[in-house]
Every structure is written in C-alpha cells, then in structure tokens.
Amino acid sequence: MMRARYSAFALGDEAFVRRTWHPDHCPPDLNLDDGTRYLGLKVHAAQDDEVEFTVRLRAPGQGPGSFRERSRFTRLGGAWVYVDGDLT
Hints:
- It is a single chain.
- This protein has helices at 2-11, 14-19, and strands spanning 37-47, 50-58, 64-76, 79-87.
- By secondary structure, it is α+β, with helices and mostly antiparallel strands.
- Strands 1-2-3-4 form a four-stranded antiparallel sheet, covered by helices on one side.
- The protein is globular and about 40 Å long.
- The two termini are 20 Å apart.
- It holds the Pfam family YchJ_M-like.
C-alpha cells in the first residue's frame, strides 16, 4: 500500500490518494499539483499496521529534500487505508 500511495502522490492521482486515506482523517483540500517532484521512496520497516519510510523530493523553489515518517494504517471495508503518521 505504501508504494502505491507514493506512486499516486508522484503522479498526482488524487482519486487514488483519497480512496486509500481513512475518510475521518483525509483533509478536504489535497494539492497534488503544487509542482513537487518525488525522487524516491525507501521503506525502512513494516510491521502490523505501521510503515516507516523516507521520501526524497524536490518542492517548488527549494532544493532536494526528504522526510521520514512512521505511518499508521487500518482495514476499512477489507482494504488497508492510511490513518495518520508522525515525522521521525
């Protein structure tokens, strides 16, 4: 699920991102057309309902950067959906 969501962000596929985000936690405004270029994903660990990963990216007007997050997922209607995450 993590790799699919990363790809959806990189491709600007808002419908997929919304479908895979828990409806109680999904923000009303997603700006996937902000010019951010996604440069890579590294999954460090996945256990039970948590995934820890690093994303490399280039935001508009900035040089390359990255962030590391521990995300939480849950099952909803038989499918895994993103709940929330903490930057680490």
